[in-house]
């Protein structure tokens, strides 16, 4: 009855177990949510104040491509990072999600192939399906913390139909951060082969230790080929504000994105007004947040490494990691956590990793863990996971 | 470089002249905006109060398919209209726009045809292009106020590839409201031929005089075939809130829409919290708004009828009408209004109607006029239009 492309859609691996979680909550079980990248960090007070001081009598449409005030605020943000962005390079979108969906539609034709790294951000699969684009994956491995493969392996995956690659840096779901040298090689290759690069850098603020983040927007030679998709959701803990952006020097892409933006009229007005003050958020907000996440990552890894048979990746960024569990099927175990397990009326929710892989049958025994909770809760989560695995296997 | 489907997108006829308007404003010219359906009616105070009293410290993701509180509020709204909607029939979307885009993707496959009436809501063209769907138009005429054609003419437009029809009732851009008898025939035909009906009823509150509005959701026999797309934008003057919804009894459609909703994570959290109180808006809010618009329509038509050579339709609903101008090319004239005309430093902005037609070369001398201003401003707008036409033709 409905279209086969709609029937073939999958429930998000991040959210598909939510109905089971709701049942568990009704039974009185407390759930530690490690399944979803919903930070518990407070949103900047300047944003919340902006929301509360919305004074208009009519909640009217904002400009389709974003309010001028928000664009100017974003320009200031990018310039502080050393990126020479001007207001005309920007189209404000309804979340990073919309920026991604637009990029797939604009850069590729139906039937084209776009490369990605496996495991990948699961929702790319839906945005690609929406645009009729085939995602083809270059596999990365837990054993080297999901490092960006050499350009040679990427070259091998390119076919006549390949028109681009999407790079998530820092990576969701692996937390890997890609170094300058490898990115530079990749850029050279893409420019030479006329491949677009969708650069999803939503997590750029979340890079730990001595690791340096390098934006694909900083490679001048690739200016016409790089389309940055970005979001306020993670860096300001504003997931529910639904504001993102496309940033590119490619004028055709900006024009097409503006036309798509006009068709859906506008992004939320009230949030745009409040977000146009975010360039005033002091740098120490980010360093504090970063310190907090680094501590959480270290706590989580330490906790996970105590669990017999579990293999854990050591990521440098974002707030996710992939763990390989000593079970046959991680999704079955994730369901077990919600339906059959609890300790002192508590359990933990994880995202099965299989849905993050484009390549079939990979990641079946892996989970993605988001470390968006306080360290005490992460420690307890690891303990719950250890107990549950023992009971599940035992 | 970019995809041809993206290159083929058009700027919205409602917004394409905005750059010219900005230049005119910089010259100090005041513009009466009849180009866009942005009501000047105040948004309900209960919504604005909800925004200002947002108390959470983290602006977190809402549920992908919409907050339970908003769904329950919507159920109350539909029940008050006599429609037996339950919470499971609903998926909250980011504006009616997203509901439409989802419907095109879910109901049709790439290459399928969907019927619409010409002139149509211009943004359907982009949503259809997004989904690879071909819109095919059944023409309606200004001479009978753009009445819904007999089912016979619709039958003639159906081909092997036709999988559905989209009905905008009340119509944007024509303001036509379709009567029970003709809708009933259409429903019979669609059910017999297994055609989906996308029912865009965004303007249901705006129906004037003795005209009765009939929802396609009220035809029980078509429950599996009707997908309602709806929006808070117009009925509560909340265009900038970006909240809409898909409503259908078809479980497959609800499930597919939920999956698409999960991919883009969520609709705006703060607006959902505030909107979940909107069922408390008293009925007299709507009757007051309706009276105001009816007065505006009558004022506008009276003003337009005084202009020599201009032909105006007499719509029963929404807040738009189509007028045929005594010029060869209405878009050229609309540009002239912004670039070369002003009277006492004032001018008027209209939407050229050609972009609302799927059929090429129709509507070239027509404009869509939105009557979203106070009657005094509408009277002045008609005067400006008369002066401008005289100068343009003279």
TrEMBL record, chains A, B:
<dbReference type="GO" id="GO:0008483">
    <property type="term" value="F:transaminase activity"/>
</dbReference>
<protein>
    <recommendedName>
        <fullName>Aminotransferase</fullName>
        <ecNumber>2.6.1.-</ecNumber>
    </recommendedName>
</protein>
<comment type="similarity">
    <text>Belongs to the class-I pyridoxal-phosphate-dependent aminotransferase family.</text>
</comment>
<dbReference type="InterPro" id="IPR015421">
    <property type="entry name" value="PyrdxlP-dep_Trfase_major"/>
</dbReference>
<dbReference type="GO" id="GO:0006520">
    <property type="term" value="P:amino acid metabolic process"/>
</dbReference>
<feature type="domain" description="Aminotransferase class I/classII large">
    <location>
        <begin position="53"/>
        <end position="383"/>
    </location>
</feature>
<dbReference type="InterPro" id="IPR004839">
    <property type="entry name" value="Aminotransferase_I/II_large"/>
</dbReference>
<keyword id="KW-0663">Pyridoxal phosphate</keyword>
<dbReference type="InterPro" id="IPR050596">
    <property type="entry name" value="AspAT/PAT-like"/>
</dbReference>
<keyword id="KW-0808">Transferase</keyword>
<dbReference type="InterPro" id="IPR004838">
    <property type="entry name" value="NHTrfase_class1_PyrdxlP-BS"/>
</dbReference>
<dbReference type="Pfam" id="PF00155">
    <property type="entry name" value="Aminotran_1_2"/>
</dbReference>
<keyword id="KW-0032">Aminotransferase</keyword>
<dbReference type="InterPro" id="IPR015424">
    <property type="entry name" value="PyrdxlP-dep_Trfase"/>
</dbReference>
<dbReference type="InterPro" id="IPR015422">
    <property type="entry name" value="PyrdxlP-dep_Trfase_small"/>
</dbReference>
<dbReference type="GO" id="GO:0030170">
    <property type="term" value="F:pyridoxal phosphate binding"/>
</dbReference>
């Amino acid at each position: 009855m409905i279209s086969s492309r709609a029937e073939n859609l999958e429930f998000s691996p991040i959210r598909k177990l939510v109905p089971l979680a709701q049942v568990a909550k009704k039974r009185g079980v407390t759930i530690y949510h490690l399944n979803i990248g919903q930070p518990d960090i407070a949103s900047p007070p300047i944003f919340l104040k902006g929301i509360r001081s919305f004074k208009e009598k009519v909640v009217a449409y904002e400009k389709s491509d974003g309010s001028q005030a928000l664009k100017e605020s974003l320009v200031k943000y990018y310039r502080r990072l050393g990126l020479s962005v001007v207001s005309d390079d920007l189209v404000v979108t309804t979340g990073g999600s919309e920026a991604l969906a637009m990029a797939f539609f604009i850069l590729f034709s139906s039937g084209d192939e776009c490369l990605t790294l496996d495991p990948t951000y699961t929702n790319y699969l839906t945005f690609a399906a929406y645009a009729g684009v085939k995602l083809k994956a270059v596999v990365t491995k837990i054993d080297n913390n999901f490092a960006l493969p050499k350009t040679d392996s990427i070259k091998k995956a390119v076919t006549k139909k390949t028109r681009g690659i999407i790079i998530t840096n820092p990576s969701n779901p692996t937390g890997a951060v890609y170094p300058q040298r490898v990115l530079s090689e990749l850029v050279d290759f893409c420019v030479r082969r006329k491949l677009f690069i969708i650069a999803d850098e939503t997590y750029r603020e979340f890079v730990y230790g001595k690791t340096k983040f390098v934006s694909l927007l900083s490679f001048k030679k690739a200016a016409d080929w790089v389309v940055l998709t970005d979001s306020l959701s993670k860096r300001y803990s504003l997931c529910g504000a639904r504001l993102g952006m496309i940033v590119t020097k490619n004028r055709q892409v900006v024009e097409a994105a503006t036309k798509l933006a006009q068709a859906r009229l506008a992004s939320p007005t009230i949030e745009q007004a409040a977000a146009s003050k975010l360039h005033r958020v002091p740098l120490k907000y980010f360093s504090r947040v970063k310190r907090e996440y680094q501590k959480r990552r270290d706590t989580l890894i330490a906790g996970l490494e105590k669990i017999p048979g579990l293999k854990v990746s050591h990521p440098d960024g974002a707030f996710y990691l992939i763990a390989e569990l000593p079970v046959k099927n991680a999704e079955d175990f994730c369901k077990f956590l919600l339906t059959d397990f609890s300790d002192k009326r508590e359990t933990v929710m994880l995202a099965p990793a299989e849905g993050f892989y484009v390549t079939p049958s990979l990641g079946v025994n892996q989970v993605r863990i988001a470390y968006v909770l306080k360290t005490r809760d992460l420690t307890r989560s690891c303990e719950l996971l250890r107990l549950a695995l023992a009971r599940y296997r035992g």
